[in-house]
Structure formats: structure tokens, C-alpha cells
Amino acid sequence: MRFPAAFLILLFIQGPECLGCVVPSGQQWLVTGLKNQLVNSIKPLCSPDPSTLIALNLAKNPDACVPQNLLQRIKDTAAQDMTSGKVALYVLALRSSCENPKEVVTSKGKTNLVDVLEIKTREEIESFCKIANELPTVQYQGTTMPSSSSV
């Protein structure tokens, strides 16, 4: 919780210059090259990558057809056997496209990806806790924690 507050404080201290991003004209070719690589990385027969849509939206890709097609493919595959991390990426991709992740229209009807994310996260935490209780100690991000059964 401290990071977002600190980020917002820095954002306000920096002023509006921090909000805009201007690429010098002499380096614009680099951005164009990255956009082209992103567009070329989209494979029609492969699972859509929400990270690509996020990047294209952040780069303000002038070719509106590419993000729209990718967005539709992301909507069509929403919540199909995903981990919480994958669902979170889908939520971010939809939000970056000004879409509501709570009302995703898929081929199977409407899906609320925020609810799916909450359920998947809860399931993964419960699974982690179950495994943690079976072990004498648990290693989490470099910190050894005693499990509840050994306390």
C-alpha cells in the first residue's frame, strides 16, 4: 500500500511533464520498429497475448484494426482454463482498451473477469495454504516461515 501512495506523491511533485511521453523525432524509428515487432508477433492460430494488446495501446498504435482484432480474440478466449496471473493480464488488457472486464461478452455468454480473478486467486491461496500446512517450514520470497502445524 505504501508504493502506490509514494508513486502518486512523486507523480504530483513531477508535475504534468511526468504524465506525457514524447519521443524525440530522431528516435521515433525505434518506437515504430517496436510497434511493428508487436504487430508481427500476433499469430492468428495461437492463443492471444494480452501483453501485446497492452503494449500496443500504450504505444498508441495508429492502425486501429490490429488492436481491435486482438481485443476480440482476447474476449473470445476470456476465462478459459487460466491461472490468476493470466486472468489478471486479461483484465489489464481489457482496461487498457477502455473495456469493462466485469462484462466481457464471449462466445459462451457474458463473463465477469474480475469475479473470475477473485475466485482463482482465492483457490490458489487456499491451495498454497494447504501445502504449507503439510510442510514443516515454507519458503516464500526468500523468507522462511513456520507453518501453522509447526507453531
Word description of this protein:
The protein has about 150 residues and is mainly alpha-helical. Residues about 1-20 have low confidence and may be disordered. The chain is built from six helices and four strands, in the order αααααββαββ. β1 (about 105) and β2 form a beta hairpin. The chain has one domain (about 40-150). The longest helix has 22 residues, at about 115-135. It has helices spanning about 1-15, 30-40, 50-60, 65-75, 85-95, 115-135; strands at about 105, 110, 135-140, 145. α3 (about 50-60) runs antiparallel to α4, α3 runs parallel beside α5 (about 85-95) and α5 (about 85-95) packs antiparallel against α6.
**For the CA atoms, what is the radius of gyration?**
20 Å
Sheet having the most strands: 2 strands, antiparallel
The proportion of residues forming helix, as a percent range, comes to 40-55%
Report the uncertain regions: 1-19
**Average predicted local confidence, pLDDT:** 77
Cα distance, first to last residue?
28 Å
SS summary, helix count: 6
Percent of sequence in beta strands: 5-15%
What form results from the Cα inertia axes?
globular
Number of domains: 1
Widest sheet: strand ordering: 1-2
Indicate the structural class: mainly alpha
Secondary-structure element series: HHHHHEEHEE
How many β-strands, per DSSP? 4
InterPro entries: Cbl-bd_prot, Cobalamin_Transport
Subcellular location: Secreted
Keywords: Cobalt, Cobalt transport, Ion transport, Secreted, Signal, Transport
Main location: secreted
